[in-house]
Amino acid sequence: MPLYEFDCPGCGQPFEKLVRSAAAVNDVVCPNCGNPRPRKKLSTFAMKGSSSGSSSAGSSCSTGL
Ligand SMILES: [Zn+2]
After folding, report:
1. How many CB atoms lie within 10 A of CB 31?
2. pTM
3. Which residues surround ligand 1, an ion (CB under 5 A)?
4. Are the C-beta atoms of residues 53 and 31 closer than 8 Å to each other?
5. Fewest CB within 10 A of the end CB: N or C in the chain?
6. CA of 17 to the centre of ligand 1 (A)
7. pLDDT at residue 10, as a whole number
8. Are 39 and 9 in contact (CB under 8 A)?
């Protein structure tokens, strides 16, 4: 069972949850406030270095460094 990270849009608290299948991700609720629609975050090992707040602007990171 993979461990997924979630971000709750209701209370803003991140949490982790063991999910037995991809379909079960839709059944995950926030343990803090009970929000039924937490947002699944990408796997921790998938992101490298930068820990900026919101990364909603696509996957192109050409900042010219
Ligand atoms: Zn919550």
Report:
1. 15
2. 0.60
3. 8, 10-11, 30, 32-33, 35
4. no
5. C
6. 13
7. 96
8. yes
